[in-house]
Write a structure and sequence with these properties.
The complex is a heterodimer of chains A (387) and B (123). Chain A is of the alpha+beta class. Chain A has nine helices and 19 strands. Chain A has a six-stranded mixed beta sheet with strand order 10-11-12-9-3-13. Chain A is globular. Chain B has a single domain, classed as OB fold (Dihydrolipoamide Acetyltransferase, E2P). The chains are: A alpha+beta (387), B alpha+beta (123).
Amino acid sequence: MSHADDTTPLLKTPLHAAHAALGAKLVPFAGYDMPVQYPTGILTEHNWTRESAGLFDVSHMGQASLIGPDHATTARVLEALVPADILNLKPGQQRYSQLLADDGGILDDLMVARPLDPAQDGTLLLVVNAACKTADYAYIAARLPAGVALVTHEDRALIALQGPKAVDVMARHAPGTADMAFMSVIRTTYDGIPIGISRSGYTGEDGYEISVANGDAEKLWNALLAEPEVKPIGLGARDSLRLEAGLCLYGHDIDTTTSPVEGALTWSIQKRRREEGGFPGAARIQRELKDGPARVRVGLAFDGRAPAREGAEIATKDGAVVGRVTSGGFGPTLGAPMALGYVPTAMSTPGTKLDVIVRGKPLAATIVTTPFVPQRYVRKTTAAKGA
Amino acid sequence: MIIRYSKDHEYVRLDGDVAVVGISSYAQEQLGDVVFVELPEVGKTVAQGKEAAVVESVKAASEVYAPVSGEVVEVNSELEAAPATVNEDPEGKGWFLKLKLSNPAEFDALLSEADYKAFLETL
């Protein structure tokens, strides 16, 4: 992951002034000046998102379209770069995948959606990480055949509304959004503002990610904030929420040195692709699927209250270092420390007792399944609400 | 009781020859919500400027440096179960440890409350 150095001026999202007006603490993140927290603080923001609805500016992320003559053509072009089944995406369906390097290492993770509107047949909507977007676009563009083009949407902002009450807010203002299935996309309006919206997120809660023209972003942000269920949430709580949900952070839990199998993302490689291959690093990934990878990402729970942070060594009870923590912190909803890290596959069974070394001292830890806090996604279309 | 501050944002409140050490209101605000405090063992000797305790917020871990040298005579073990006390009452119930001063001159050289406030203005 590359970060802007001190001499590069920080980029601003279209909501930068709105964050400043709310009293946000702004910090450099992936080259952008982003809100890490608002005056109430990370714990309050975290809990609000779990109980009500949190509003996040994620406009620093990269939005792009891959545009070809028809779905099958565009899907096959993307399938040469990612291991997910894109060909069989239904109109309006979204999927999580990884952009792979030739050795099977992960260049970035991304969301891929097939638009619902038949008029957009042949287009795939991509959302990639802010720190990776320039490199991703170059990588994808260099591998496109004639007739398929990558169009980036620097003219669009991205706003996430996450939490159990997000659906109540959207139901009042955005037609068709309350009945959306998890991981689906539609185009609609919010109080008349045109939006592209997906039912997805990065908190483990039900919620939405909303793409909007830069010129409408502040209007939409303020309209959402005016709802009683909604408060602004910074990147600090976004990190504690995603970690509790067991979701990977690119550049930390997965990177160019990890394959999707090592990263415990096998669930995101559909059966047809596992069998057929045809993506970068397929030989390695198919071998790891068959024989098991040398190491794998796991969740760690702790006996004590001291959090283990990224970089902490994971050791056997005999003191042999066998891996390291890639994300770690205190889970406000969990009420305990939690961490993700890599260990040899032989030691990855839930219940395995290990130590994590923090400030030179071993902390007793246990391998656990993730998420740490149960995800509460809407798994299927909800029944229509009363008139 | 006289209170002094270090430029690392620890305070020392002198009570006879025992110094009560904690982090300033400014420091807890910068840290954010405190979720864990690691305290030294009673009887340990700490040197000025060296790590005496660790405080962790949701975001990150930070060292608490001993603003003065001395022997740890008591720690605030209530912080282990209620770390948020550091945010709620940093310069009162949220104290970290008590030191028996080994060099009282170190205390006198620290910032007065007025000087510390002036120092914060420069940050």
